[in-house]
Each structure stands twice: as structure tokens, then as C-alpha cells.
Amino acid sequence: MDFELTASMMCANYGNLEKEVAELDQGGIDSFHIDIMDGRYVPNFAMSLNDMCFIAGATGRPLDVHLMIEHPNNHIGLFLKNLRPGDTVYIHPEAEYHPSTTLQSIINAGMIPGIAINPGTSVETVMEMLRIVKKVLVMSVNPGNAGQMYLPYVGKKITKLLSLKEDMDFEIYWDGACSADKITEYAPKGVRGFVLGTTLLFGKDRPYEEVLEAVRQFEF
Asked: pLDDT band for position 146 (50/70/90)?
């Protein structure tokens, strides 16, 4: 089964971030997920621009930058100039007056444009943007904190997106409470990638290489 695994770096050990990045890189992670929070769009602060820049310089693997900030177009240039062509930038449509303008800036910079859909955001409200983006990050929890419980009604949203992805040419990624049963159910259905946090990847007292291999082989 071919699917991607990305590490939620807000869950990493910041006592030695360089070592964390190196071990995840060597362990075969596909990309690094960077959660940027401004304390306004979500009631929390997480990673910063400097964290993103450090990780970008510590690995050659792609970055998935998830902007949980109000009006990302006001600051998008700060992020884009420190990323590399082929990195992904997700915005939340509700956070922007004209999200298509921000997405076009991401495209013009050579990055992969994406939107993140909150549990309470319907597919119908982002339908036109699905023709612009290449990735849709489906939040299975409300954004802002790690370790939350899965919201089961999100499954129906993913089913709807799966029915649209071929025609509109986008891939679906899962973010939040990503447990073993979610991967075994949704990877075969066509979900392309999964953001791994404390549920499956971090804090397991096993080398990341062993954990990632077990996930890829469905040996949980």
C-alpha cells in the first residue's frame, strides 16, 4: 500500500530538535509537518517561523507548513522565501478574506498549494478552491492542540472528498488523532497521507525507523 507519512513536529522533543529531525530523516519519514499558530485563529501558540527555518535547513525532505493564522496573506512572503520549491503550504479558507489570492501566491512561489478543512467546515463551502489546490488536509480534530479525540463525523466528509479528488485533481491528507485503525481503513480507500503525532509516532521508546516500518506494514 502506497501512502505518505509526515511527522507532526509540534510533538517532537525540543530538548534536542536537531537529533529528532536527523533520526526521523534516517528513519524514512516522508515529510515534516510544521504547525504555525498565532494564538488568534486557534487558541494556542505552537511552532514559529524560526522553527520552520531550522528544520528546512536540517533536512532535504519536504516540509508541510500548516498555517493556523489569521489573514495568512499578510505574512505569506515570510514563509515562502524560507521554503523550497516543492514544499507544501496549507491555509485555512476561513482565515482569509480572499483565500484564492493567497493560494496563487503559494503557486507563484513554486510551492504546493493546500487548504486545511476544520471538522465544522463543509466540503460545499470550499468546492471552488478544490480546483486550485493540490492537497486537502482534513482535520479530524479541532485545530490548536495535540492529543485530542477523533470526531467521527469527519469520516463522511472524507468519503465525499474521495469521490471528488480524481475529477478535481487533489490528494487527501489526514491530520489529527491518527491511529492505526484510521490508516488501515482510509489508506486503501485513497487517502494519500497521514500526519503522525503522539498517537503513533512520538514518545514510543522505539527508534523512529522501527515505528515507521511498522506503520507502513500495518504491524501496529
From this structure: low
Among residues 51, 64, 87, 175, the one annotated as catalytic is: 175
Place of cell 493556523: 68
Residue labelled with grid coordinates 507502513 = 216
pLDDT in tens, 42-77: 888 989 999 999 999 999 999 999 999 999 999 999
As a whole number of angstroms, the distance between CA 38 and CA 57 comes to 23
What is the Cα–Cα distance from 84 to 77, expressed in whole angstroms?
Answer: 13
Catalytic residue, chosen from 35, 51, 64, 87, is 35
Query: Do the Cβ atoms of 34 and 57 come closer than 8 Å?
Result: no
Cβ pair 136, 129 in contact under 8 A: no
Residue 153 or residue 84, greater confidence: 84
* Beta strand residue intervals within the chain, DSSP E: 4-8, 31-37, 63-68, 88-91, 112-117, 135-139, 171-175, 193-196
Catalytic annotation present for 175: yes
Q: How far apart are CA 91 and CA 113, in angstroms?
A: 8
Rounded Cα–Cα distance for residues 190 and 2 (Å): 9
Cα-based distances in Å from 35 to 11, 22, 32, 124, 160: 10, 19, 10, 25, 26
Q: Which residue has the cell 491518527?
A: 178
Count of residues making up the chain: 220
Annotated catalytic residue 30? no
pTM for this model (two decimals): 0.94
Give Cβ neighbours of residue 120 (< 8 Å, ≥ 6 apart): 142
| pLDDT tens by residue, 171-184 | 999 998 899 999 99
